[in-house]
Specification:
Length: 183
C-alpha cells in the first residue's frame, strides 16, 4: 500500500509539473504572438503613413481658390487642360512645417520636370524629374532634406509662404497651371 501511495503521489507530481510546463509554453507562445502581431501592425502603419496618409490628408482645411483682383488677373492666364492643383499649403510662416501639396487628378501620367512653384516674392522651386500618376501627389517642404518620390525639399533657410499670398504652379513652358490662396 505504501508503494502504491508513493507511485500515485509521483504520478500526481508529474502531472502538476507537466501542467506548469504547458502553461509556461503557452505563456511564452502568447508573448511571442503579441510581439509578432505588434511588430507587423507597426510596420504596416509606418509604411501606410510614409506612402499614403501624409500625402492624401492635409492638417488644415483647404482654402477657396484665389479671389482677389491680383489673383484674378493672374488666373486669367490659368490653363486648366491638365488636371493638376495645389491642394494645400500647410504651416505657412513656420519654416520647419511649411509644406505645399501638389496633386494630379488626371488619368494618365504627369511629368513635372522643370515645372515651377512660385510665391509672390519671387521665390521659385523648380521640380526635378518626377512623374505623378493618377491621383498622385507630392509634398514640397521648404526646409532641406532628402528627396523621395512623395517628398521634395526646397532647401531655403527662411519660411516662404504667408497667409493671404498666392502659391502658383507653372509648367515647363511657363504656363500658369494652378493658383492657391494661402489661408
Amino acid at each position: 500500500m505504501g508503494l502504491a501511495l508513493l507511485a500515485m503521489t509521483f504520478h500526481l507530481d508529474c502531472a502538476i509539473i507537466r501542467t506548469i510546463m504547458d502553461r509556461r509554453k503557452l505563456f511564452q507562445y502568447l508573448l511571442l504572438n503579441i510581439f509578432v502581431s505588434a511588430s507587423v501592425t507597426g510596420a504596416i502603419l509606418f509604411w501606410y503613413d510614409r506612402n499614403y496618409r501624409a500625402v492624401s490628408q492635409s492638417s488644415v482645411q483647404q482654402a477657396a481658390p484665389a479671389g482677389s483682383d491680383a489673383a484674378s488677373a493672374a488666373s486669367a492666364d490659368l490653363q486648366t487642360d491638365i488636371p493638376v492643383k495645389i491642394s494645400s499649403v500647410v504651416g505657412a510662416g513656420t519654416l520647419t512645417s511649411e509644406i505645399v501639396v501638389v496633386k494630379f487628378e488626371g488619368e494618365n501620367q504627369l511629368e513635372l520636370a522643370a515645372w515651377q512653384l512660385k510665391d509672390e516674392n519671387g521665390n521659385t522651386f523648380t521640380f526635378p524629374k518626377l512623374t505623378l500618376y493618377p491621383n498622385g501627389a507630392v509634398q514640397v517642404h521648404t526646409v532641406s532634406g532628402t528627396d523621395t518620390v512623395i517628398d521634395l525639399y526646397w532647401g531655403i533657410g527662411d519660411a516662404v509662404w504667408s497667409s493671404g499670398e498666392n502659391a502658383r504652379l507653372f509648367d515647363s513652358q511657363g504656363n500658369l497651371r494652378a493658383v492657391y490662396r494661402v489661408p
